[in-house]
Amino acid sequence: MYDLFLSYAHGADESMIPYAHRIYEELTVAGFNVWIDIYNMNNTVKDEKKIMRSGISSSTIFVALLSPEYMASLNCNFEFSVALKKNKPIVLAAVKSGIYKTQNFTHLYGLQHEKLDAINLTSGHFKKGVEELVSTIRNIY
Hints:
Blueprint: E1 2-8, H1 16-29, E2 34-35, H2 37-40, H3 48-57, E3 59-66, H4 68-72, H5 74-85, E4 90-94, H6 103-109, E5 119-120, H7 126-140
Parallel strand pairs: 1-2, 1-3, 3-4, 4-5
């Protein structure tokens, strides 16, 4: 069982993997058991969607690390739709500039979020963003 499922787009050059791993480490230090693909998926696995679905099912909260690549990613959209279908609490966090306002994203999924602004986890706001992310997650628990 996991506390969190961390959903993010690797990016064309896989540049987001180290950044997502940094967020994973911060959440782990804060005491959360976090599902992240780099530790829970084998590159040779044929049915990665089954593993993603299982990871989401076994996690309490779904954390989406939003970026333009996230919006365009078929895997990220699959993960997000599974989280919605399973009624998982969803926390939105922006990891790239210009995506704090998530109205367009939430509109795609028909979400009625009370808070449409994502937590700012861009590099210049990382420390404060992690504090807000941890606080938001703890408030859901």
